[in-house]
Design goal:
The chain is an alpha+beta fold. The protein folds into 2 domains: 108 residues, RNA polymerase II/Efflux pump adaptor protein, barrel-sandwich hybrid domain (OB fold (Dihydrolipoamide Acetyltransferase, E2P)), CATH 2.40.50.100; 221 residues, Chloramphenicol Acetyltransferase (2-Layer Sandwich). It has 7 helices and 21 strands. Helix 1 runs parallel beside helix 2, helix 5 crosses helix 6 and helix 5 crosses helix 7.
Length: 448
Amino acid sequence: MSTQNFTLPDVGEGLTEAEIVTWKVAPGDHVAINDVICEIETAKSLVELPSPYAGVVGDLLVGEGTTVEVGTPIISFVSDAVPAAATPAAAPAADEAGGSVLVGYGTGAGATSRRTRPAARPVRSSVGVIAKPPIRGLARDLGVDLSSVTPTGADGEVTRDDVVKQASQASVFRNIETPEWGAVREETVPAPKSAPVGLARGVAAAPASAGHDSDARTESIPVKGVRKVSASAMVQSAYTAPHVTVWKEVDATRTMELVKRLKTSPDYADIKVSPLLIVARAVIWAVRRNPMVNAAWVEAEGGAEIAVRHYVNLGIAAATPRGLLVPNIKDAQDLNMRELARALNRLTLTAREGKTPPADQQGGTITITNIGVFGMDAGTPIINPGEAGIVAMGTISQKPWVVDGEVRPRYVTTVAGSFDHRVIDGDGMSRFIADVASILEEPALLVD
């Protein structure tokens, strides 16, 4: 029976040591190639270390919590009772002396495999996938199945570029399966007891200027009506909800192509179509996948609650002569593309004419502000009171963009989103904005 020590490998991060955080095996355990044997922590990340052998665990040579240098023996293996020939064909079978050997690295002289590597390099069996621990960790973080990756590294090893490429190719189509809207329209969940306290609800008034008469140098505009209500709402939101904004630059070329096709379609002959239609459709879809962005922080007698709405009253910020209005489309999640386009047309026309009724400005769940119509690339919008998220759509313009390794002119835009950090964490809003971006990159996925 042979014994083999496994030393701490170079995990490819340019580091010389690592800490053994948790052992996943114990002496006497049977392991297969690529089974996780322990977690190690470097200065950069926590990594799962796969077994290079199929066999029986001998001894754990390093205790948990111990930091060791690369090349230090950390675990020993003994050959399994199952003959090596019983392992998959790609694994080494036996040495020339006829003794049993461990399947994996460090076979005896004369052992053969289907792959030939330089003697100085460990030989990994083709059972599973050939990839270093940090590459496995990257694949796990990006949701990439290593078995689906085409390796380009030496002797069939999966590289970092292989994983990133696979993730980028799959990103558009990862979202095909989406949950259905629930039967319950709204539910409440307990709010964190240690929620951050809001800032002051008001601001100090500026001191009156002295030494100048109210002449042509200064013009006074009374704050009233829509502007007064809007100003009060913005101050309340900005100084109550802790705002955070994230954004992503997007290749919206296919969105522009779809808009062009819809404009020439007989089904949309009497409807004005713009990129806002695709953005609205993307937001509704992304809300269904990330419902907390559609929630609201509610102060209740028994303590704060988070109201999660299972419907979308989609607000569209509109600049009008009367000031900023945010009318919303009720139950927008039930509308198809054509119905949503009609609703957007009616909402915009009514707002511009100053005829938006109060009911249309109440009950919104999430808002879109299209700052792109003013030539702006991005912004940090203030959340509409009673909501937890707002999306800002920047201008769409042609820019140089790298496509398949070549620089090409593409229609590029920036999607930004502000959110109430009491309700949503950064990862939730980031996923939401990423989902919106993925539809702008490939809007055909949402065509009815």
